[in-house]
Write a structure and sequence with these properties.
single chain, mainly beta, Immunoglobulin-like, Jelly Rolls, five-stranded antiparallel β-sheet
Length: 338
């Protein structure tokens, strides 16, 4: 220290000692590691004026947040993103920032994981990549090759199947694969959007007509069955030819969305199994729903007794329940073999 009075000076020495521990300084102050990697730290003790008290790493406890773990002065984390490493000694602490990046591609997930289409229809897929710690690597659809089995084809990420039944779609990105289930309905004209092909009124009484009308359950159109006669008679919507022909072993599930202009009539949805060679009836099952003026779904299931047969699918009102006028509306038919 120097004193000065009118140019006359004098000096004295003053020794300044470091103060008590006030906080820690961690090094490195910021770092980046891959997912699952680790970073070693050192801790330097500082007083309130940031004077160094020397290395205190050995007596410092390290922790990491929001996740991860520290062993001694080495910290690791698997979840990608920003992390904070904290060193604590005698109640005093210091922090450092640690950015955890995603690792290399470990697996992919394709979406949707399950879907249903009509025979001849298609389904679009996406693929997401993930590292070993399940950190997202983003969309990898463009780098993923898609395929479908037991039959069908994929163009880019869009897969098509012409045969009803259960299918599996596989995505492959550099040997990393993921699968999704695709249920293909045997019904090729489920919504009457273009015409009424594949459907008729066979089994109905006289005077029953089938027409395509606007206002479907989904899409723009639906089927309407009308009794144009003067007396009540059976009013039946029938698949023709049978969508499921020949059949495979298993349990088929059929569904149809239906409504009526007047509520209260009992509509039946039916499967009938016939021998292709002899035409003999091999079995039948029926489900029933009471029609309302709102769309509702009715479902029926049937287990095949003789694979290779043909499965007739129809919905109907019995003669007592179908007086002259509109019988019922139908839309969005499916016949599935899970």
């Amino acid at each position: 220290m120097t004193g000065n009075d009118g140019g006359k000076t004098s000096t004295a020495s003053l020794g300044v000692t470091v103060g008590a521990l006030d906080h820690l300084a961690l090094a490195p102050a910021s770092a980046t590691i891959p997912s699952g990697g680790s970073q070693a730290y050192t801790a330097d003790g500082r007083d309130q004026y940031d004077n160094s008290l020397g290395d205190v790493t050995a007596t410092t406890t390290f922790s990491i947040a929001p996740n991860g773990s520290c062993t001694g002065a080495s910290c690791t984390a698997s979840l990608s993103g920003a992390h904070t490493v904290t060193g604590t000694k005698s109640g005093k602490s210091g922090t450092a920032s640690l950015q955890v990046g995603a690792g290399g591609l470990d697996h992919i997930v394709i979406s949707p994981s399950s879907a249903t289409i009509s025979a001849g229809g298609s389904q679009a897929y996406t693929a997401q990549g993930f590292d070993a710690s399940n950190n997202s690597l983003g969309d990898v659809t463009a780098a993923t090759a898609f395929s479908i089995a037991p039959n069908g084809s994929c163009t880019g990420a869009v897969c098509t199947a012409n045969t009803g039944g259960s299918h599996t779609v596989t995505g492959n990105d550099g040997g990393k694969t993921s699968t999704a289930s695709l249920a293909v309905s045997f019904v090729r004209n489920p919504g009457f959007e273009t015409d009424t092909s594949g459907w008729n009124t066979s089994g109905s009484g006289s005077g029953i007509t089938l027409a395509r009308v606007s206002g479907g359950h989904s899409g723009s159109w639906a089927a309407q069955l009308t009794n144009s006669g003067t007396t009540a008679t059976t009013c039946l919507l029938n698949d023709s030819p049978d969508w499921a022909r020949p059949t495979s072993a298993g349990t088929y599930s059929g569904s149809l969305w239906v409504r009526a202009d007047t509520a209260g009539k009992p509509l039946k949805l039916r499967f009938r199994e016939y021998s292709i060679s002899s035409g003999a009836l091999l079995g039948t099952t029926t489900a029933q729903v009471t029609l309302t003026t709102s769309w509702q779904q009715v479902t029926v299931s049937y287990t095949i007794t003789a694979p290779g047969s043909t499965l007739d699918f129809n919905a109907y009102l019995s003669s007592a329940d179908a007086p002259p006028g509109s019988c019922f509306y139908a839309d969005d038919a499916t016949v599935l073999l899970p």
